[in-house]
Design a protein that fits this description.
about 120 residues; mainly beta; 7-stranded mixed sheet; 11 strands; about 55% strand; globular
Length: about 120
């Protein structure tokens, strides 16, 4: 089994910054895509950003230019640097990674953007 544990969520003011981190433990042998998704109250879970093992990135239009994803293939970690946050960024953020045919999710970390 693989476990993903997120950290770094919290309350941040509009225009501020926050960094989320996710560490994977367990039976890890080859992680293809690592990424972040989010789910706001009453909405479906949506993609925020992903990065392949070869460092190809994909960002949601709503965060392009404000958020940056990074990963460490040796430590099996993925991070999300969030800058210029907006109230619409408020959501539970989930770490995800794919390994072979399997997809794993973290338990989520709350990010609240409010003054």
């Amino acid at each position: 089994q693989v476990q993903l544990v997120e950290s770094g969520g919290g309350l941040v003011q509009p225009g501020g910054s926050l960094k989320l981190s996710c560490a994977a433990t367990g039976r890890i042998f080859y992680v293809n895509v690592m990424g972040w998704y989010r789910q706001a109250p009453g909405k479906q879970r949506e993609l925020v950003a992903t990065m392949s093992r070869s460092a190809t990135t994909n960002y949601a239009d709503s965060v392009q230019g404000r958020f940056t994803i990074s990963r460490d293939n040796y430590k099996n970690t993925v991070s999300l640097q969030m800058n210029s946050v907006k109230p619409d960024d408020t959501a539970v953020y989930y770490c995800q990674h794919t390994q072979g045919d399997d997809t794993y999710w973290g338990q989520g970390t709350q990010v609240t953007v409010s003054s």
